[in-house]
Specification:
509 residues; mainly beta; Neuraminidase; 2 helices; globular; kelch repeat; transmembrane; repeat; Galactose oxidase
């Protein structure tokens, strides 16, 4: 039992203070201030099936993130990388994992659902919708309708096959529909999709593949395509650059919608040896008819994020949070750090102050260790106490009776009042014959152990084995009621008095 408790503490420590291993190409979804991560690829190329989340309802410091709460609810049924994920469902409590590279590759399931309320995974039927796994597609979720919009990507099993139809998944009724349009942009992969409050999805960057070409090219960052979810129409917007600023083309970057309605992109690579792109961070103003790019003036600090590709970015409480990914210019060189950008001041921050209504306090690492050590000590004390009491009770159950004459002299104590504490003693001498050492009679007799508590008697019959005379031991016997005697035995080795009630109506001679 103690081992099980210690093992449970070990699991608690691992879940609470162990920062997950760095990775890139992980899918992510934000639900109720919990940022979930699914899968991803490790430094050695292994694809993960892990599911875990970072609790953003509590404030934290990026330098002590290891002592923050990371939780591992339930691993995914498959390993995945370069997949997409989003929140959905009738009560927005489900995570939908769609496409990507999945292991084992023989698995035909394209989409999965994870219920965060009960912690279980289930397969999603994709007939009439997504018919094969895709890498590099984008995903947008409309919380008002429950629709998930999937666009583009390339086939995992056939890298030369690219897509440009819009697939819509109803996350409430679990139904699929395809929207094809002659005005849709060219096939593309590795881009981002950001849903505005107006219901318009903005697509930025990535690779594009024209109909008359088999070689993809980087999408010009001034060429912005949008999709109106209300009218199902595509539009093109030729974004301009502020002060002749150039925003480098990129793939596998991140894009988030800030509280002021602007889109902030970060990182990515140019697709050649995982090379870095410039600038790392840029802002797209989509409030005017013609979109406009700008590069904010960011103060450099010790908390400045590295150039990343295949990372995760979310916006919460005016902070853009960057996690995981691969450091550009080096392959592979996975990132295990967290970076915070204050989107109001455009400063890299060291700590995150949560505005969640139920802001919980995260214990420091020393406090957690003190609790663990104290728990272990307490368990050992309780265990020792249980063992000691058990051994003591075992000693008390041993009845030492008999002497050379095989008779015991007794004295009776009679109760004279309803008050259990009031008694009168009356000396009476009785002799009780015991089986002799050489007697052929069995050395075992049935006795009745009795406890008197508030005038209630609990009786339990159990066999007692006589132990032959011990030198120096004296024996006394109390008469409890008619036909019974109660033996009090004192042994020479400091054994406490033993109280056993004998049925003297049995024949012991």
């Amino acid at each position: 039992m103690i081992f099980i408790f210690i093992f449970a503490i070990y699991l608690f420590v691992t879940a609470v203070i162990s920062k997950p291993e760095g990775r890139y190409a992980a899918a992510s979804a934000l639900i109720d201030n919990k940022l979930y991560f699914i899968g991803g690829q490790f430094q050695n190329g292994t694809i993960s099936s892990e599911l875990f989340y970072l609790d953003l309802s509590a404030s934290f410091n990026v330098n002590t993130i290891a002592s923050h709460r990371w939780s591992d609810p339930s691993p995914a049924p498959i390993a995945s990388a370069w997949a997409t994920a989003t929140v959905g469902g009738d009560n927005k409590s489900r995570i939908f994992l769609i496409g990507g590279i999945m292991n084992p590759p023989t698995n035909d399931t394209v989409a999965y659902s994870f219920n965060t309320n009960i912690g279980n995974w289930s397969n999603i039927t994709t007939s009439g919708g997504l018919n094969q796994k895709r890498k590099g597609s984008s995903l947008s979720y409309d919380p008002d309708s429950g629709y998930i919009y999937i666009f583009g990507g390339q086939s995992v099993s056939n890298s030369s096959k690219w897509f440009h139809e819009m697939i819509i998944f109803d996350s409430i009724n679990f139904s699929w529909s395809n929207v094809t349009s002659s005005t849709a942009p060219s096939k593309r992969s590795g881009h981002t999709a950001t849903l505005l409050k107006s219901g318009i999805i903005v697509f930025i960057g990535g690779w594009e593949l024209n109909e008359n070409s088999s070689i993809p090219r980087l999408t010009n960052m001034s060429q912005i395509w949008t999709y109106n979810t209300n009218s199902a129409n595509w539009s093109f917007n030729n974004a301009k650059f502020t002060n002749d600023t150039i925003i480098g083309s990129r793939i596998y970057h991140s894009a988030v919608l800030a509280s002021d309605g602007k889109i902030i992109i970060y990182g990515g690579s140019n697709g050649i040896n995982n090379s870095k792109v410039l600038p790392d961070l840029a802002v797209l103003n989509v409030s005017s008819t013609q979109f406009q790019w700008s590069i904010p003036n960011i103060k450099s600090s010790n908390n400045t994020a590295r150039s990343l590709v295949g990372h995760t970015a979310v916006i919460i409480d005016d902070y853009m949070i960057l996690l995981f990914g691969n450091v550009t210019g080096r392959q592979p060189n996975v990132n295990d750090m967290i970076y915070l950008l204050n989107t109001k001041s455009y400063d890299w921050a060291a700590s995150y102050q949560s505005n969640a209504p139920n802001n919980s306090t995260v214990l420091s690492l020393p406090a957690i260790l003190c609790i663990i050590v104290g728990s272990i000590v307490l368990v050992f004390i309780i265990g020792f106490s249980i063992i000691w009491r058990y051994q003591k009770c075992s000693i008390k159950r041993t009845l030492l009776v008999g002497n050379n004459s095989q008779k015991v002299k007794t004295r009776s104590v009679l109760h004279d009042s309803d008050d259990d504490n009031s008694t009168r003693s009356e000396e009476q001498h009785h002799y009780f014959d015991l089986p002799s050492r050489n007697s052929s009679e069995s050395q075992e007799s049935h006795v009745t152990t009795f406890y008197d508590y508030q005038r209630q008697v609990f009786q339990q019959r159990q066999p007692i084995h006589y132990m032959m005379p011990i030198d120096g031991a004296s024996y006394h016997q109390d008469q409890g009621n008619e036909g019974h005697v109660r033996v009090i035995s004192y042994a020479q080795h400091d054994i406490e008095p033993q109280y056993v009630e004998y049925d003297t109506t049995s024949n012991h001679s």
